Amino acid sequence: MPTREEALAQREWYxxxxxxxxxxxxxxxxxxxxxxxxxxxxxxxxxxxxxxxVVNAKKIKLTGKKWDQxxxxxHSGYMGGLKLRTARQMLETKPEELVRLAVKRMLPxxxxxxxxxxxxxxYAGPExxxxxxxxxxxxx
Length: 140
Description:
33% of the residues lie in helices and 18% in strands. It has six helices and six strands; from the N terminus they run αβαβαββαααββ. The longest helix has 13 residues.
């Protein structure tokens, strides 16, 4: 017998073109869609959201001086193990990571958030391997 979540979850696949879009505004809309807040039967403890495929992450925009002032950092856990990168450096090396991190930080910080993040697929260019799912174009 299906659970309530399985019965309510009519998951769709959407493709979002990120070219020319502002990162934060795009990420907040994607986070809402991943959670399922756009559906009438939203429940905060259930995963009712859709799958989102983001293409052209390399053409994302940031406003103001964020390209040079926004810093992404990670730490290895060892002394002197702090690695700093600006948004411009991230765009050159891992443009997908810019979008993924922006969305990740807008999702809940628990098991549900980790589950929701698996439904986000980000690609630097216009090509993606999800044609079989028939993703619908989504204008944000």
